[in-house]
Amino acid sequence: MYELSVTSSFSSAHHLCGYGKPCEQVHGHNWKVTAVVRCDALDGIGIAIDFKVLRGKLREVLAELDHRDLNETEPFRKTNPSAENLARFVFEHLSAKLAGGPAGLARVVVQENEDSSAAYVP
Q: Number of structural domains, the chain?
């Protein structure tokens, strides 16, 4: 089994409703998102999926979130835009974009800063 990953980033604001601490106030992050795919076979030239293709599809998903107040976007009006929920959102949307392709999405990791991250693995 081969695993490949790409990382991209986006910037946005959010707040965590019901948190009761400073993160309940609107604040921003420069999020870093890593998508990991798995593939059990390589193509005729020895690759599982083109990194440019994978990164492009990840960027398409992140474009929906970039420079937005996440609490005002449709997926997060009723759900806190936590790193955990962001990881699941990206996983579900990226997985749909990769459906039928040579590699399947294994996990998505969302970092809100250098030392804090959350992953979603179905």
A: 1
State the pLDDT confidence band at 74, using cuts at 50, 70 and 90.
very high
Overall residue count recorded for the chain in this entry: 122
Query: How many whole angstroms separate alpha carbon 38 and alpha carbon 5?
Result: 9
* Among the listed residues 10, 15, 9, 12, the one whose alpha carbon sits nearest the alpha carbon of residue 82: 15
Where do the DSSP E strands lie in the chain? 2-14, 27-39, 68-69, 104-113, 116-120
Q: Say how far apart CA 69 and CA 34 lie, in whole Å.
A: 21
Give which of 107, 82, 84 is closest to 94, Cα–Cα. 107
Reported confidence tier of residue 20, pLDDT bands at 50, 70, 90: confident
Task: Supply the range of the domain harboring residue 22.
Answer: 2-120
Rounded to whole angstroms, the Cα distance separating 115 from 44 reads: 39
- Here the CATH number for the domain that contains residue 58 is 3.30.479.10
Structure pTM? 0.95
Task: Return all residues near 24 (Cβ < 8 A) that are at least 6 apart.
Answer: 15, 16, 17, 18
